[in-house]
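Troubleshooting entry. The earlier prediction with zinc ion gave an output that would not parse, so I re-checked the input for stray whitespace and re-submitted. Clean input:
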Amino acid sequence: MQKAVFLDRDGTIIEDNGYLSHPSQVVFFDDTFEALRRLQKDFMLFIITNQQGIGNGVLTPQEVEGVNLYIVDLLKKSGIHITDVYVCPHTKDDRCICRKPKPYFLHKAEREHGINLKHSFVVGDHPSDIELALNVGARGIFVLTGHGRKHVWEIDDNAVVVPAIGEASVRITGKQ
Ligand SMILES: [Mg+2]
Ligand SMILES: [Zn+2]
Protein backbone atom coordinates (compact mmCIF):
# COMPACT_ATOMS: atom_id res chain seq x y z
CA MET A 1 0.00 0.00 0.00
CA GLN A 2 1.07 3.55 -0.74
CA LYS A 3 1.64 6.28 1.79
CA ALA A 4 0.65 9.85 1.03
CA VAL A 5 1.14 13.42 2.15
CA PHE A 6 -1.95 15.57 1.75
CA LEU A 7 -0.82 19.15 1.37
CA ASP A 8 -2.98 22.13 2.06
CA ARG A 9 -2.51 24.74 -0.68
CA ASP A 10 -2.86 28.32 0.63
CA GLY A 11 -0.48 29.17 3.45
CA THR A 12 1.26 25.79 3.22
CA ILE A 13 2.92 25.38 -0.19
CA ILE A 14 2.14 28.89 -1.49
CA GLU A 15 1.53 32.17 0.28
CA ASP A 16 -2.02 32.79 1.45
CA ASN A 17 -2.92 35.87 -0.54
CA GLY A 18 -6.67 35.55 -0.12
CA TYR A 19 -8.85 34.39 -3.00
CA LEU A 20 -6.60 33.55 -5.94
CA SER A 21 -8.28 33.93 -9.33
CA HIS A 22 -5.19 33.98 -11.57
CA PRO A 23 -1.84 32.15 -11.73
CA SER A 24 0.00 35.48 -11.52
CA GLN A 25 -1.08 35.70 -7.85
CA VAL A 26 0.66 32.45 -6.93
CA VAL A 27 3.79 32.86 -4.79
CA PHE A 28 5.53 29.65 -3.77
CA PHE A 29 7.39 29.52 -0.48
CA ASP A 30 11.16 29.26 -1.02
CA ASP A 31 11.39 25.83 0.58
CA THR A 32 8.36 24.25 -1.12
CA PHE A 33 10.23 22.68 -4.04
CA GLU A 34 12.97 21.08 -1.98
CA ALA A 35 10.42 19.88 0.58
CA LEU A 36 8.14 18.23 -1.96
CA ARG A 37 11.08 16.59 -3.72
CA ARG A 38 12.13 15.12 -0.40
CA LEU A 39 8.60 13.94 0.40
CA GLN A 40 7.88 12.33 -2.96
CA LYS A 41 10.71 9.83 -2.54
CA ASP A 42 8.59 8.05 0.07
CA PHE A 43 5.07 9.40 -0.39
CA MET A 44 2.48 10.13 -3.04
CA LEU A 45 1.58 13.81 -2.98
CA PHE A 46 -1.90 15.30 -3.05
CA ILE A 47 -3.18 18.84 -2.67
CA ILE A 48 -6.38 19.24 -0.69
CA THR A 49 -7.92 22.68 -0.46
CA ASN A 50 -11.11 24.34 0.72
CA GLN A 51 -12.03 27.04 -1.81
CA GLN A 52 -15.12 28.61 -0.34
CA GLY A 53 -14.60 31.60 -2.66
CA ILE A 54 -16.44 29.53 -5.26
CA GLY A 55 -19.44 28.99 -3.02
CA ASN A 56 -19.35 32.66 -2.03
CA GLY A 57 -19.44 33.69 -5.69
CA VAL A 58 -16.06 35.47 -5.42
CA LEU A 59 -14.28 32.90 -7.61
CA THR A 60 -15.43 30.76 -10.50
CA PRO A 61 -14.59 27.04 -10.56
CA GLN A 62 -12.60 27.75 -13.75
CA GLU A 63 -10.45 30.36 -12.01
CA VAL A 64 -9.60 27.97 -9.19
CA GLU A 65 -8.92 25.20 -11.71
CA GLY A 66 -6.61 27.54 -13.63
CA VAL A 67 -4.60 28.36 -10.52
CA ASN A 68 -4.38 24.69 -9.55
CA LEU A 69 -3.27 23.61 -13.03
CA TYR A 70 -0.58 26.27 -12.96
CA ILE A 71 0.69 25.05 -9.58
CA VAL A 72 0.71 21.39 -10.64
CA ASP A 73 2.40 22.26 -13.94
CA LEU A 74 5.10 24.40 -12.35
CA LEU A 75 5.86 21.67 -9.81
CA LYS A 76 5.95 19.13 -12.63
CA LYS A 77 8.60 21.19 -14.43
CA SER A 78 10.67 20.88 -11.25
CA GLY A 79 10.25 17.11 -11.24
CA ILE A 80 7.52 17.03 -8.60
CA HIS A 81 4.46 14.91 -9.25
CA ILE A 82 1.14 15.80 -7.63
CA THR A 83 -1.15 12.79 -8.00
CA ASP A 84 -4.41 14.66 -7.57
CA VAL A 85 -5.84 17.99 -6.45
CA TYR A 86 -8.96 17.85 -4.32
CA VAL A 87 -11.06 21.00 -4.11
CA CYS A 88 -14.07 21.63 -1.89
CA PRO A 89 -15.94 24.53 -3.54
CA HIS A 90 -18.50 24.89 -0.76
CA THR A 91 -19.00 27.26 2.14
CA LYS A 92 -19.46 26.13 5.71
CA ASP A 93 -23.19 26.83 5.44
CA ASP A 94 -23.53 24.43 2.51
CA ARG A 95 -22.92 21.54 4.94
CA CYS A 96 -21.30 19.55 2.15
CA ILE A 97 -19.58 16.20 2.53
CA CYS A 98 -16.15 17.30 1.29
CA ARG A 99 -15.04 20.39 3.22
CA LYS A 100 -12.01 19.86 5.45
CA PRO A 101 -11.93 18.51 8.16
CA LYS A 102 -14.39 16.05 6.61
CA PRO A 103 -12.45 13.00 5.39
CA TYR A 104 -14.30 12.55 2.08
CA PHE A 105 -11.32 13.25 -0.21
CA LEU A 106 -8.90 11.20 1.87
CA HIS A 107 -11.18 8.22 1.57
CA LYS A 108 -11.37 8.87 -2.17
CA ALA A 109 -7.55 8.76 -2.33
CA GLU A 110 -7.58 5.60 -0.24
CA ARG A 111 -9.98 3.95 -2.69
CA GLU A 112 -8.63 5.24 -5.98
CA HIS A 113 -4.90 5.19 -5.25
CA GLY A 114 -4.60 2.48 -2.63
CA ILE A 115 -3.43 4.89 0.05
CA ASN A 116 -2.87 3.62 3.56
CA LEU A 117 -4.19 6.57 5.55
CA LYS A 118 -2.75 5.34 8.84
CA HIS A 119 0.74 5.81 7.44
CA SER A 120 -0.07 9.13 5.77
CA PHE A 121 0.22 12.78 6.75
CA VAL A 122 -1.72 16.00 6.39
CA VAL A 123 0.25 19.26 6.37
CA GLY A 124 -1.56 22.56 6.82
CA ASP A 125 -1.77 25.98 8.42
CA HIS A 126 -5.29 25.65 9.79
CA PRO A 127 -6.73 23.61 12.67
CA SER A 128 -9.06 21.87 10.20
CA ASP A 129 -6.01 20.32 8.52
CA ILE A 130 -4.95 18.74 11.80
CA GLU A 131 -8.52 17.65 12.54
CA LEU A 132 -8.67 16.08 9.09
CA ALA A 133 -5.63 13.96 9.91
CA LEU A 134 -7.12 12.89 13.23
CA ASN A 135 -10.41 11.97 11.54
CA VAL A 136 -8.73 9.23 9.47
CA GLY A 137 -5.97 8.11 11.84
CA ALA A 138 -3.30 9.93 9.83
CA ARG A 139 -0.76 12.29 11.35
CA GLY A 140 -1.11 16.06 11.14
CA ILE A 141 1.73 18.55 10.84
CA PHE A 142 0.87 22.16 11.55
CA VAL A 143 2.93 24.86 9.81
CA LEU A 144 3.28 28.42 11.09
CA THR A 145 3.24 29.97 7.62
CA GLY A 146 -0.02 31.37 6.20
CA HIS A 147 -2.58 31.58 8.99
CA GLY A 148 -0.59 29.20 11.16
CA ARG A 149 0.70 31.76 13.61
CA LYS A 150 -2.78 33.15 14.14
CA HIS A 151 -4.35 29.74 14.83
CA VAL A 152 -1.58 27.90 16.63
CA TRP A 153 -3.22 28.41 20.04
CA GLU A 154 -6.22 26.34 18.84
CA ILE A 155 -4.02 23.33 18.21
CA ASP A 156 -3.77 20.47 20.70
CA ASP A 157 -0.66 20.55 22.88
CA ASN A 158 0.42 17.19 21.49
CA ALA A 159 0.29 18.33 17.88
CA VAL A 160 3.43 18.60 15.82
CA VAL A 161 4.09 22.26 14.98
CA VAL A 162 6.90 23.32 12.64
CA PRO A 163 7.90 26.68 11.15
CA ALA A 164 7.21 25.81 7.50
CA ILE A 165 6.92 23.15 4.80
CA GLY A 166 10.67 22.52 4.74
CA GLU A 167 10.77 21.45 8.37
CA ALA A 168 7.55 19.49 7.87
CA SER A 169 9.22 17.41 5.16
CA VAL A 170 12.22 16.69 7.37
CA ARG A 171 9.96 15.73 10.25
CA ILE A 172 7.88 13.40 8.08
CA THR A 173 10.72 11.63 6.30
CA GLY A 174 13.30 11.74 9.08
CA LYS A 175 15.77 12.85 6.40
CA GLN A 176 17.57 16.13 5.88
MG1 LIG B 1 -4.32 26.96 4.33
ZN1 LIG C 1 -17.46 20.58 -0.11
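This one parsed fine. Residues 4 and 43 are 5 Å apart (CA to CA).
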